Amino acid sequence: MSADEKAKAKTEQVAGKAEKAAGRAVGNERMEAEGSAKESKGDLRGAKEKAKDAFKD
């Protein structure tokens, strides 16, 4: 996995988790949903890069 894409995936995951937790803490469902979406986007980006690496070998 390229280091740049791996860093983007991790950043999205962490930012999503933080936003989701903040939304849950204040009772804001929209913020919680947006955080969950960001986290999922990061998970998908990471999975895509892992799949690309698997086919390289």
- Find the structural class using helix and strand composition: mainly alpha
Shape type: elongated
β-strand percent reads: under 5%
Unreliable residue runs: none
The separation of the N and C termini measures 12 Å
Order of H and E elements: HH
Count of distinct strands: 0
Question: Biggest sheet, in brief?
Answer: none
What gyration radius follows from the Cα positions, in whole Å? 13 Å
Helix percentage range: over 70%
- Look at the structure and give the mean pLDDT: 91
Number of continuous helical runs: 2
Quick gist of this model?
By secondary structure, the protein is an all-alpha fold. Helix content is 91%, strand content 0%. Helix 1 (3-26) packs antiparallel against helix 2.
Output the keywords.
57 residues; mainly alpha; 2 helices; CsbD family protein; YjbJ_sf; CsbD
Question: Can you describe this structure?
Answer:
By secondary structure, the protein is mainly α. 91% of the residues lie in helices and 0% in strands. It has helices at residues 3-26, 29-56. The chain is elongated and about 45 Å long. The model has no long low-confidence stretch (mean pLDDT 91).
